[in-house]
Design goal:
Number of strands: 0
Strand content: under 5%
Radius of gyration: 34 Å
Structural class: mainly alpha
Oligomer: single chain
Shape: rod-shaped
């Protein structure tokens, strides 16, 4: 068997292994990008929106003012 044929077979095998590794890395990168995009979408849905927070705080403040007014009215009697 000629050395050139052995070299070509060995080189082809090495190129195959490198290509296989690059393909695995490429698929893993794409999978990670997809997972990160999904995570980014889910993260934003778990937080309270600023407008909702302001409305809730406003309701709490109104309730506290109402309680304070009732207490002041009772203390005056």
């Amino acid at each position: 068997m000629d050395y050139q044929i052995l070299f070509n077979i060995a080189f082809s095998f090495i190129i195959f292994l490198v290509g296989w590794f690059v393909r695995i890395a490429y698929d893993a990168t794409n999978s990670m990008k997809h997972d990160l995009m999904t995570l980014e979408r889910e993260l934003h849905s778990g937080f309270v929106r600023r407008e909702d927070y302001k409305e809730d705080i406003r309701e709490i403040k109104d309730l506290l003012l109402s309680i304070q007014d009732r207490l002041n009215a009772k203390a005056d009697k």
